[in-house]
Design goal:
single chain; 260 residues; 6-stranded parallel sheet; binds NADP nicotinamide-adenine-dinucleotide phosphate
Amino acid sequence: MQRVKLLILGGSGEAANLSRALANDPRFDATASLAGVTEQPVSLPIPVRRGGFGGAEGLARYLIDNCIGLVIDATHPFAVGMKANAIEACERAHVRLLALRRPPWCPSDGDRWILVDDLDAAAEAIGNEPRRVFLTTGRKELAPFVHAPQHLYLVRSVDAPEPESLPPNAELIVARGPFAENDERQLLEAHRIEFVVTKNSGGTGSVAKLAAARKLGVPVIMVRRPALPNAESVETVETVEEALAWLDSHHAGASARLGV
Ligand code: NAP
């Protein structure tokens, strides 16, 4: 049986789980691709390449040169540039693409969400009065908060930000989820947090802070997901299980065509 070469564009927990699920699948020869932004990424049981391809053109060339038969875009929900590149590159290289996009979080009863379009708007939404703010927006995206130095920030990120990128009044926690609701609640209480700022990443790993904020009545400034160009042109699933089912049907179809 000929193994199908599969490229998983990573950056999400789903990409890691899919990589684990496919590691011993004899039908597929899977490689994961990471942007290389996380210093110590979760280790994966399949080959991993790191760093950009050089735009859509570079990715198309990589797909052709490496005889990739399928691409699964499981990038982070906010990695819009890479998603657009994947669509264009797969079209150019005539490679089938599946997008694995986990659903965004939706507010429940008791949530006090303030929806904004980007991090500049998030910083503005905190207001002029000095506040105690829990920031979980990623270590590379602190600039808007540096420009709002009146607040006290509790910054949590997977890797430590460059010290000069931190707002002046910031305490840092370096930690990787998943986080438990009780711990999140204690954290918000201990730091007397008045606002939580987060991107609407969705998923389970960092959702506990939202439940903790709801219980404590703390408002959450929620950055909406960016619009995805040509999203409707791509076959899309929401879970790893659905992606695996899609791969099963793809493989069954390919075997039937080959008469194997
Ligand atoms: P992006 O604008 O979509 O990507 C920028 C460039 O990084 C891409 O054009 C590509 O470079 C490279 N890249 C991204 N994902 C890649 C992958 N899986 N394999 C190889 N190269 C990849 O997005 P971003 O700068 O990565 O992140 C944007 C947002 O997503 C931020 O809000 C960030 O906090 C969030 N985020 C991203 C990741 C991640 O792993 N990327 C993880 C957590 C959160 P070339 O054009 O050279 O190919």
